[in-house]
Amino acid sequence: MVTLGEGSTPLVRADRLSERFGVDLWLKLEGMNPTGSFKDRGMAVAVTRALAAGAPGVVCASTGNTAASAAAYAARAGLDCVIAHAAGAVAAGKIAQVRAVGARLLEVDGSFEDAFAASVELAERDGYTVVNSTNPDRLEGQKTAAFEVLDELGGTPDVLALPYGGGGNTTAYALGFAERGASLRLLPVQAAERARTFASAIRITAPVHSEEVETALARFGGEVVTVGEDELLDAWRLVAREEGVFCEPASAAGIAAVARGGVDPGARVVCVLTGHGLKDPGAVELLDR
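Above: the chain's sequence. Below: its structure in token form.
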């Protein structure tokens, strides 16, 4: 098993935000994983399976967090790693993580979708394993966060709200909750300006898991919530300055949905904070606006 000690991240009650919004609000701090994001859960499984299959390396397209995680776990496994990314679309902190552990960066002119196409082409040519969330092993690892939410709460929340970029994490939580027979509403939260949002982790114009997300919503209930840039920024500021939790901008998406009044008064809500704030330190200047 290729592991860096991922999982078992804190679930903490947001006392001041609970009072502000009139709900029982909890924060799942996935930024406490080894490379600072939720991606590590699935990457441990995907890289373990790639190693067992004899793959010479792994490849992925990324807006940043997948890149950092794939690079670290590949280094741990002794595998080559190639990261395809859209030019100028990845936060500097995440690029630094990739460079530090020795993965190769492939800059692609265009969008995330162009970078993903390049990663698939390389995988087919060189026999590498694609470790994006299209790899089912990734989702099997990520669903463990749903188990932890249920175990740490000692029950089922009324609502789970989380960022919606590619949709893999929503799909994984749905898998985990379904496996445990849990019933709750899911609120995947996307940026209105998907292609240009300052929350770079969810800057994906065409979610690869959109059909799976719709299936999950049909099963559990809930809806895709779309929030504006000002709403994201306000939520990011609130969780930092009222709860002392520094997450990356995209992580505040769930809180933005709660702030809008998207849940019933008194509901027990878990917001998944997907990445640590040090992933995108350059964005901090926005908080002072």
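The longest helix spans residues 112-126.
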